[in-house]
Structures are given as C-alpha cells and as structure tokens.
Specification:
Blueprint: E1 2-8, E2 18-24, E3 31-32, E4 37-43, E5 46-51, E6 56-61, E7 68-70, E8 74-79, H1 85-94, E9 108-110, H2 126-135, H3 153-171, H4 179-194, E10 197-205, H5 207-219, H6 226-240, E11 246-249, E12 252-255, E13 261-267, E14 270-276, H7 284-300, H8 305-308, E15 313-317, E16 336-340, E17 344-350, E18 353-367, H9 373-387
Parallel strand pairs: 13-15, 15-16
Antiparallel strand pairs: 1-8, 1-9, 2-4, 2-7, 3-6, 4-5, 6-8, 10-18, 11-12, 13-14, 16-18, 17-18
Helix pairs in contact: 2-3, 6-7, 6-9
C-alpha cells in the first residue's frame, strides 16, 4: 500500500480563518524530504513557512500563488512515485477540507494499481481546469506534456498564447512608427511631462463674424473659412495682449512683437505646425490664401524648415470634425495653444430675453512657468472683443 498526503492550509493562529499563498518553493514533480520548506503563506500580516512532515513527491499543485484559501483547504498532494494519477484524482475529488487543526490532515492509503477515465478531467487538476476556463482553452483538444500524458498549466498557457497570436494576427495591423510620428511622440510626451499646463475655457458668439464672412465671400476672389476669420481675430488679440505671445528659451522668455501663428495641420502622417508670420498685418483673404498654401505643402510633404519654425502661438481647430471642445498640448517652446471647437446653435440671453446664437467653445492651454492665469484670461477677454468687433480686416 502507498500513501497520499494532503497539503492543506494549517491553522497557525487561534484567530486564523484563511491565508494567502505567497510562494510555492517546490514545483510539481519535485522530490520532497521531511522538513523541506514547501510553501510560504501569509496570514494576519505574518508570513509562515510550511515544512513537510513526510517524504515523497509533490505530485499535484492545486492552489495558485496570490489566492486566499480557508483553513483546511487542499493546496496540493504529496505521494510516492508509485501512486497512480487516477488514485490521486480520486483522492482530490473526495477531499472534504476543513480538517481540524488539532488532528491535521491524514495520509490516505491507496492501492498501487488504479485506473481512471481517459478524458480531460482525469488528466488535469483543479488548478489546470480553472486556468483553462479563464483562458477559454478546450482541455479535450490538448495533448498533455506532463507525466503519463497529464495536462499541465504550461500546456494550457501555451494553447492560449497560440490562439491569441492567431487572433491578434488576424485582427491587428502592425504599423511601424515613421520618423515623423516618432518625433511627434517624443516632443508631445516631453511637453506633457515637463510643462505645467493650465487651462482656461470660454464661449464666443460668432453671428457677427459669420455675417461678415458672408460679405467677404461675396466680394472677394478667395473664399474664407470660419477658421481663417478666427486666426485673423487671434492675431489682433495677440498684439493687444502680448503676454501669451511668448516662447520659453532656456531661462529666458521671448515675447514677440508680431503674431507668428502656428497652425496644427492634420496629415496622414500626423500633425504639422505650419507658421503664418506677421498674421496681424494680413487681411482675412491673405490669411486664407496662406493657410491653404501651407496645408497643401503639409499634405504633399514639402514643408520647409522655415515653414514650421518661428511660431509664437498655436491655434488648433477640430470644429470641422464635429468636436465641441477639447484641450490641446502645448508645442514648446511656445507658451500657449488655443483649441477651437465647432460652432453650435445655442439659446442665450440678450436684453433679458432668450435668443438663438451660434456659439463656439475655446480652450486656452498655457505654460504656467511663463504665463499667469490673469494674463491668459485677459487674452481671452480681448479675443472676445475682437470677435464681436464691428469690422474685420478687408482684402482680397
């Protein structure tokens, strides 16, 4: 007759009701001598080491590291090498748990011969079955690599990894980062991590601006967009409130006399910052022409270094994509970026009565190292005055 010895959670303290299995110090199939440290378990913030009272082989590991188990729960099985897997399966299936701490678990005699059904249940243990269920692996489809064809945790994990790879290959297209995208990723990561951003939001009514746009488009050869109008307004506001028209270069603040507005132009390869220089001196029509030319060069990949450098302030508009509002990441060394959403019909109060107006949301991101909150707020206030002003710059 051979012996099977259960490894069960002992009661190490009077108040102990469960323990968390930290580490198995032996692997399934390892020889175990009396006194060997087999596992570590934590209970009540104390880590205890379980030493084997018997010699044999660690035939089964049932419990998973990191899980909590009640006192008396079966964690594993030690048995001699001549005990059949079927006998161990039967022992595990019949184990009641909750063994008294006073008496402790008892070794169970088994016959040296034993046969069990030749199916997945007979070739696995509860840990393997639980793992297979979690990973969605069909045990009946596996060929075990363990002793006597037993299915191991490694077999299940390998099957799950293989099916995952197949699914991933079918569902995912791997696109290597282009040099441009790597540069964008690096610069924006550095900007977000190193610049103390703060954000100011405001809504502007656009009806006066839209009416003037209609007049300009009727009279001019170049069609202007709402974005062109807003860029012109931003340029005028930057000249009137230059506190946000700044770059941080080393330990110095560079405040610009002119509004060199950097536009965030979307292309298939990412966003490009293209600069309209001295925008405050241009008409709306000239800004429209400059914006169109820069966008065309960006999409053709023909922007020059001069086209993308020298910006003093950035404008990013996602309104044409239906975005209501958003916050943008500052593009260093510039100290601020204005994020513009789409114009929306909203109910507003005018002269004490409700009215419908076209409203746009604007969010200003500022570098708090060089721009104070009051300065950013004054710029937004001035921009609102320009947008509501009586006349835009004329021109072709």
């Amino acid at each position: 007759m051979s012996q099977i010895y259960p490894i069960a959670v002992p009661k190490w303290g009077i108040e102990m009701v469960e323990g968390t299995l930290n580490t198995w110090n032996k692997r399934e199939g390892d020889a175990v001598a009396r006194g060997d440290e087999v596992f570590d378990m934590e209970s009540d913030k104390i880590v205890n080491v379980w030493e084997s009272p018997v010699s044999g082989v660690l035939r089964r590991i049932i419990a998973t590291e990191g899980d909590a188990h009640p006192v008396g729960a079966l964690l594993g099985v030690i048995a001699s090498a001549d005990v059949s897997d079927a006998d161990i399966d039967a022992f595990i299936a019949g184990f009641g748990g909750g063994t008294s701490a006073a008496t402790g678990p008892k070794a169970a005699p088994v016959s040296s011969a034993g046969a069990g059904p030749n199916d997945a249940a007979a070739r696995t243990n509860p840990v393997v079955r639980k793992l297979a269920q979690e990973l969605g692996v069909d045990l009946n489809a596996l060929v075990g690599t363990g002793r006597n064809g037993r299915i191991t945790q490694e077999d299940v994990q390998a099957a799950a990894a293989g099916s995952g790879d197949d699914a991933a290959a079918q569902a995912v297209t791997i696109i290597p980062l282009s040099a441009t995208r790597r540069t964008i990723a690096r610069r924006l990561t550095e900007a977000k991590q190193s610049i103390p951003h703060f954000y100011l939001g405001v809504d502007y009514e656009l009806d006066s601006l839209l009416a003037q746009r209609e007049q300009l488009n009727e009279a001019g050869a170049v069609k202007v967009s709402v974005n062109d109008l807003l860029i012109w307004c931003v340029a005028q506001a930057l000249v009137r409130e230059p506190g946000v028209n700044v770059n941080l270069v080393g330990d110095d603040i560079h405040q610009f006399k002119h509004a060199n507005i950097s536009l965030a132009i979307a292309t298939d390869d990412g966003l490009y910052p293209a600069t309209i220089r001295r925008a405050e001196s241009l008409s709306v029509g000239q800004i429209a022409a400059a914006t169109g030319a820069l966008a065309e060069k960006a999409r053709a990949g023909s922007l020059t270094r001069d086209d993308i450098s020298g910006g003093s302030f950035t404008v990013s508009n996602l309104g044409m994509f239906g975005v209501n509002n958003f916050t943008a990441i500052i593009n260093p060394p510039m100290g601020a970026i204005l994020a513009l959403g789409k114009g929306q019909q909203k109910v507003v109060v005018k002269a004490g009565a409700p009215a419908v107006a076209t409203v746009i949301s604007a969010t200003l991101s500022c570098d708090h190292r060089i721009i104070d909150g009051a300065v950013g707020a004054r710029f937004l206030q001035v921009l609102g005055e320009v947008i509501a002003g009586p006349a835009l710059g004329a021109g072709p």
